[in-house]
Amino acid sequence: MEKSLARYIWKNTRLQQLWILLVVAASMVPYFLSFDLPKQIVNGPIQGDGFEGPGARQTFMHIAYDIPLIGHVEFFKGLELNRLQMLMALSLVFLALVVLNGLFKFYINTYKGRLGERMLRRIRFELIDRVLRFPPAHFKRVKSAEIATMIKDEVEPMGGFTGDAFVSPALLGGQAITALAFIIIQNFWLGMIAAAIVGVQAVVIPRMRKRLLELGRQRQLTARELSGRVGEIVDGIGTIHGNDTSNFERADIATRLGRIFSIRYDLYQWKFLVKFINNFLAQVTPFLFYAIGGYLALQGRLDIGQLVAVISAYKDLPGPLKELIDWDQMRQDVQVKYAQVYEQFNVEPLIDSRIQELATAPVAPLTSALVVTNLSVSDDSGARLVDHVSVEIKPNETVAIVGPNGSGAEAFAEALGRLVWPDSGRITIDGQDLLDLPESVTGRRISYASAESYFFHGTLRDNLVYGLKHAPMKEPEYDGKAAQEYKWHVAESQKAGNPTLDLNSDWVDYNAAGANGPEDLLKAIRPVLDAVMMSQDILDLALRSTVNTEVHTALGSHIVELRTSLRERLTAENLDAIVVPFDFDTYNTQATVGENLLFGTMKRPLMNNRRLAGHPYFQQLFRETGLSTDLYTMGLEIAENAVELFHDLPPDHPFFQQLTFMTADDIPTYQALLQKLQGKRFEDATPEDRASIIRLSFAYIEPRHRFGLLTQTLTDKIVSARKQFHENIPSDLAELIERYDINRFTASASLMDNVLFGRIAYQQADASDRIRIIMGELFDALDLYDDVLSIGLEFDVGTGGKRLTGVQRQKLNLARALLKRSDYFIFNRPIPALDQRIQDQITHNIIEGLHEEGKRPAIIWVLSNAKLAEIFDRILLFERGNLAEAGNYPELSEKNGMFKELLS
């Protein structure tokens, strides 16, 4: 990186800076003329200088020059105008100069802004590029929040300064010098007064502002540290809650905020002191002009036009001068910021940019052995993790690495995956150092997975195929306005030094996954998900998701067939009672009172329970059917039963899991509400209290809650109200509520609800699990499993994959590595969160899956269970950073050594 910001700016924008400086120089001509013109207007047509006689006229716009070797040349002989005409003509010229000066300013400021934004884009990209090239060990010493803050906020002023770096001193200095020169021309002593004040401002104010710069630097550092600390709190929130340290963190944050407040308060005090002195000096000068200039005018040594012109010129002098002083402060401020950015991002050694060059062509397989020679790896404290290990791993070999935690096995695998750099020794393939190989080779032909995983905000599918997004495989097609916008973006990217790669391209390397394109990618994904035993997880996510039938047309068209097949399957297995189907003429005992009344689903977020309850039609229906009183009475009984049964139980008692209508925190609220409503009729309760009570009855399910409140009379009344509701439903409400129809797909319901078209009986043990298994088999039988899997893969994993469980994250990380179909697979205890039996099963699945159809990539696996080493060709046993033993399973298991101890 360039150490000087000015040099960095000049290096990247010198042609644009030279052009804008030429424009600034040209703008000084009309700027000077605009100062002289008021004097001509006042002295000429207004005071009558040159128009003494009646009918006197003067020549306007006479343009003639004496050119050497040519002589006198007249370009325009001018116009003869009287006093009034001359006044109007000069005034129009003054107006034209105002417009011209404004246009110059508009062009200069717009050009500066665009130049600054390009430079901001350039420097942000270069900083992120450097982050991508940081050595792996450096990330252990920096906070991600601080890096992000620097790139997002701290370089922002540098973009604004870029346009001003050379233009502002030229423009503002030129304007100030022009105004000052004009004043001196009009009157020497007034000019000297102005020059003296300008000199004081130019010397005193910048010296006073040095304190401001130091305070600004301290503010910036403390704000960045605060950002990093907040990031630590967010990332470590579980640790904070688990150790009761939230108040310690509050104290830490309060202390930091107090320090920032103190710095900012000092900054404001000093800032406004400097502004006071600067404004005072600026206002003293007009006083001197009026006093001394007025005296000279009275003495006849200065005419009125000159005095007006001097005052007018000085009016334009403080502005550029103040802005020039502000520019100098900004220059020093951004130089301080840039110095900090330089210090933070000038990391050595960076990964060579050639290693990360884009490679669009297919990468040849690695057919040579992985040779480890005298490898040593240390941690940040200098402790030796791997000590002079030498080994050779053949391309088609399966190698189990065994050893207790801290034995060096994990660090050895990290070195093979390029996650750590060796202190000494080498890892080579075909004579090339692993660290010198392009990432286009190692990132495609070597797969690495460990228990530590990170997933980007997006869908499961995006994160699963992330390892296939090496280069744009197919450019998008643009036409019309989109094509013009794309060309403009490409041109701007080139001017800002950014790559012209299009994010809208198809980046997925389908061939690397064994697919021909997006249409058959799922056929490559499914075996991988089966191998890591994640297919059922994704099926469950799909069943809980809503389905866009415009995308998944097959599911929408087969929904009736699926419902019929499910009923037939349940009948064949004597499981009819496990699901109670929806019937418009019958009350569904396994559904809530609200679901029975609505007999459909609401299109959220356009419609929800609160909006429906407040709709005039719904309220009218309640009044006409009398359900409002019935459900209010029912809600009171629910509240009384719940409070009586659960008010003495602790909040974490498992009984509260059965209360879908009330939480442990709601018990005291309803206890107080019951006391308030005791002895009151429905009509006497407030609308808010009625809503709170009726809400309880809406969530009631008799077989689940078993309070015995649903009588046959009440269920018949609800079914009757349901029919009345749908019979006369207004159009605005009908558009937001989808009525259940056995012959139609319900778009706003989940896939599981669509297939069930009913509710699972709560009395049946393991009913949900049995239904899911049956549904999976039905999807397979109707060739719909890939469609359902695709829906599950659209699940948003959240920030860092936090919407997934720890087990799911480890499975997904393993699946992502498997999908690349590499030549070398390195698995560094990838699934420790799983049960040992499941780990063993997944290990078997992966080895069998990778070695089928004549393919045999190398597999290097750091095992948690030494007994699994039996299925590997060779075993490497690590102890205290050393390669203690090596050989096959029969050899090491019979030998009285450490491996035999691990087996026992």
From TrEMBL:
<dbReference type="InterPro" id="IPR003439">
    <property type="entry name" value="ABC_transporter-like_ATP-bd"/>
</dbReference>
<feature type="transmembrane region" description="Helical">
    <location>
        <begin position="176"/>
        <end position="205"/>
    </location>
</feature>
<protein>
    <submittedName>
        <fullName>ATP-binding cassette domain-containing protein</fullName>
    </submittedName>
</protein>
<feature type="transmembrane region" description="Helical">
    <location>
        <begin position="87"/>
        <end position="108"/>
    </location>
</feature>
<keyword id="KW-0067">ATP-binding</keyword>
<dbReference type="InterPro" id="IPR036640">
    <property type="entry name" value="ABC1_TM_sf"/>
</dbReference>
<dbReference type="Pfam" id="PF00664">
    <property type="entry name" value="ABC_membrane"/>
</dbReference>
<feature type="transmembrane region" description="Helical">
    <location>
        <begin position="15"/>
        <end position="33"/>
    </location>
</feature>
<keyword id="KW-0812">Transmembrane</keyword>
<dbReference type="InterPro" id="IPR039421">
    <property type="entry name" value="Type_1_exporter"/>
</dbReference>
<keyword id="KW-0547">Nucleotide-binding</keyword>
<dbReference type="InterPro" id="IPR011527">
    <property type="entry name" value="ABC1_TM_dom"/>
</dbReference>
<feature type="transmembrane region" description="Helical">
    <location>
        <begin position="280"/>
        <end position="298"/>
    </location>
</feature>
<feature type="domain" description="ABC transmembrane type-1">
    <location>
        <begin position="75"/>
        <end position="326"/>
    </location>
</feature>
<feature type="domain" description="ABC transporter">
    <location>
        <begin position="370"/>
        <end position="902"/>
    </location>
</feature>
<dbReference type="InterPro" id="IPR027417">
    <property type="entry name" value="P-loop_NTPase"/>
</dbReference>
<keyword id="KW-1133">Transmembrane helix</keyword>
<keyword id="KW-0472">Membrane</keyword>
<dbReference type="Pfam" id="PF00005">
    <property type="entry name" value="ABC_tran"/>
</dbReference>
<dbReference type="GO" id="GO:0005524">
    <property type="term" value="F:ATP binding"/>
</dbReference>
